[in-house]
Write a sequence for this structure.
């Protein structure tokens, strides 16, 4: 049986410690998206549609993708570096020799933590991004809180949220699989750890973007 | 002297460790070449040899971390070369391994490192585990260090914590990779005494890889030397410390006396040097 306390520890490392970065990213994306769309929509006389556009874009695409990018750069790379360092310093071999399964002891807690925390971070990132977008709507379009919320809820259905969550769950699975595999396969000391960490980030980003395109296509066809 | 010659089976019962014709090839390089030996209960076998002779590789095969190209390895009478991880883990609970650089979990404290095998493989109460951790750390002269992180202690201390962790479950068999290298002479003597106490008084069996000749002769009941160069990975000598001292093999004598001149090829000959330089 895997350790619950080790899983919680990893949830803190992978999720809670990435909260500030994810929030800042969400906030800046929300602001930017609202500013860009407010300007263009105003030219068409459709400023009231800014919350619709921002909400749908964030829930379906930008939220899951950008938070995944943050988690890949921060937590995925950290997992690879940590496991890689443990590999070269014989810690993983020591676990095996003590009769402790390294997969159960090291990998499963990280896996569960990532699968739980990336969707949670995505929801929180979406919320902060929506807040950032509202600030722009309130300051430049003189939109009330009630109007902003009503327009957002009116357009975004449950499935828009579910699509984002399904995506972030798939991204989490890809990121942690690549990160753990890269860490466990490290060869050649410190240089090997550096190379594995770079590969982990690059392959995770690539896998995430490809998976996003495939999932978007599936949801586009189905819904 | 053959590895089997000086170990009469009838007197000592079944061997705890039995290695027969072990061969390991990496690419086109044969690192271990027909290594055979037996270790009986309560014995301490010291594996020695020059750098790159395959001592640590041999140890890794015996603990099941590496699979041999051919040959047999039996621990407690069971063949381990064809075991899966699940079967190996059962055997691994019966032995302890002290790694060359400690291999401590950097995210755990010294105490938690020593407690790890107890937490994983026993159902004893936390207060008992605390007590055992204190006792094991006291054995290696590290009383009061349980709350420090591995990054806060020296290399020699890490090695001693590794030994405390290796004996945490009071295993029947102890493997140790260079347990005294990097330790001061007093601490080397303490570790040697601990090893002797474990084997002579508590019946533990030990297989130790070491370069430290004084320490080797102090703790060994048997010694085995692996060769380098033309004798790469072959057993050059095997016997009790007295037999090893009396052995006239110049290769062995050069090694145990630590002499620069002798049959062990430390430098290339003039012709060999020119050949390599010219890429011939």
């Amino acid at each position: 049986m895997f350790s619950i306390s080790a899983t919680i520890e990893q949830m803190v490392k992978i999720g809670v410690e990435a909260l500030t970065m994810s929030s800042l990213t969400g906030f800046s994306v929300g602001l930017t998206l609202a500013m860009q769309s407010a300007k263009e929509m105003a030219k068409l006389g459709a400023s009231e549609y800014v919350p619709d556009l921002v909400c749908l874009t964030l829930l379906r695409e930008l939220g899951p993708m950008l938070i995944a990018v943050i988690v890949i750069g921060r937590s995925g790379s950290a997992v690879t570096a940590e496991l890689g360092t443990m590999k070269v310093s014989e810690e993983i071999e020591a676990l095996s020799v003590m009769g402790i399964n390294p997969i159960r002891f090291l990998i499963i807690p990280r896996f569960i933590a990532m699968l739980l925390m990336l969707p949670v971070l995505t929801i929180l990132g979406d919320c902060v991004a929506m807040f950032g977008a509202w600030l722009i709507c309130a300051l430049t379009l003189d939109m009330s809180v009630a109007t902003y919320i009503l327009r957002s809820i009116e357009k975004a259905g449950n499935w828009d949220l579910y699509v984002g969550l399904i995506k972030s769950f798939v991204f989490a699975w890809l990121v942690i699989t690549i990160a753990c595999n890269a860490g466990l396969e490290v060869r050649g000391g410190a240089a090997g750890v550096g190379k594995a960490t770079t590969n982990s980030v690059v392959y995770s980003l690539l896998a995430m973007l490809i998976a996003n395109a495939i999932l978007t296509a599936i949801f586009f066809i189905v819904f | 002297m053959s590895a089997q010659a000086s170990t009469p089976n009838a007197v000592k019962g079944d061997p705890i460790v039995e290695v027969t014709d072990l061969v390991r090839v990496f690419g086109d390089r044969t690192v271990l070449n027909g290594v055979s030996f037996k270790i009986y209960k309560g014995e301490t076998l010291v594996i020695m040899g020059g750098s790159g002779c395959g001592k640590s590789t041999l140890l890794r095969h015996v603990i099941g971390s590496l699979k041999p190209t051919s040959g047999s390895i039996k621990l407690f009478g069971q063949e381990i070369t064809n075991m899966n991880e699940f079967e190996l883990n059962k055997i691994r609970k019966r032995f302890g391994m002290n790694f060359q650089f400690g291999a401590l979990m950097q995210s755990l404290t010294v105490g938690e490192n020593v407690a790890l095998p107890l937490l994983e493989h026993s159902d004893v109460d936390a207060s008992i585990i605390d007590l055992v951790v204190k006792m094991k750390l006291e054995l290696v002269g590290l009383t009061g260090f349980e709350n420090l992180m591995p990054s806060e202690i020296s290399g020699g201390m890490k090695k001693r914590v590794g030994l405390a962790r290796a004996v945490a479950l009071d295993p029947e068999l102890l493997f140790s990779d260079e347990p005294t290298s990097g330790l001061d002479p007093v601490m080397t003597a303490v570790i040697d005494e601990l090893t002797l106490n474990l084997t002579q008084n508590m019946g533990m069996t030990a297989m130790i890889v070491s370069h430290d000749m004084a320490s080797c002769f102090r703790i060994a009941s048997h010694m085995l030397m692996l060769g380098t160069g033309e004798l790469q990975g072959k057993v050059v000598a095997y016997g009790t410390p007295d037999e090893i001292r009396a052995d006239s093999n110049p290769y062995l004598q050069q090694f145990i006396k630590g002499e620069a001149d002798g049959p062990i090829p430390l430098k290339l000959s003039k012709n060999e040097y020119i050949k390599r330089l010219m890429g011939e």
Notes: The two ends of chain B are 37 Å apart (CA to CA).
